[in-house]
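User: quick one, fold this
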Amino acid sequence: MKEEVDPRETTRAYAFEMWMKAPMPMVTLFKRLEVSPLVRQSRKKGVKFNMLMCWCIGRTASEVKEFYLLPVGGALMRYDRIAVNTIVADDRGEVFSCDIPFSYDLATFNADYLRLTRQVAKTRCNHDLPESMVIGTSALARFDIEGAVGMYSGIFNNPFMIWGKYRKRLFRTTLTLSFQFHHTQMDGAHAARFLTLLQEKIDTL
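Assistant:
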């Protein structure tokens, strides 16, 4: 569920006034994560690394209040649920968008992830959850990149994360990602804290 709120009654009042009409209101941070726990769990449990990343992102975001507010059009919307988006390729290599509802229960999230991504690949139709605050992700897992800055269309203001291939170094496996967000939704300190908490969630998986 989502509802429009008066920005003056939220902690984002000043940011709404300052950044809603800015020509480029998006900010991007880069961070290198230690993802060895995800690699181990992926192999041990036979689950997808990308699914585990998406679950950790959803779990972390669900504990950061700024993620429940999002500028949409000219309004500020409050959401009561979060979803994580992933990009799905069909058998022809064409890509589609798939929103997966976040669940604290990893088994439930994994089941939804597998069911919905297979559905999208088979039907070649996007799966959207417009009533959820969606965090976009794009995993370029075959490519060794340092990160990417997403395009700002002026239509979608959702936070977005991009990563490439993880890197193995002796006893550590690292992954560099970029995190793009709308300045009305959060400040740099909120985003940096989110990335720090994301590392903590990965460490304790």
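User: anything notable?
Assistant: The chain has a mean pLDDT of 95.
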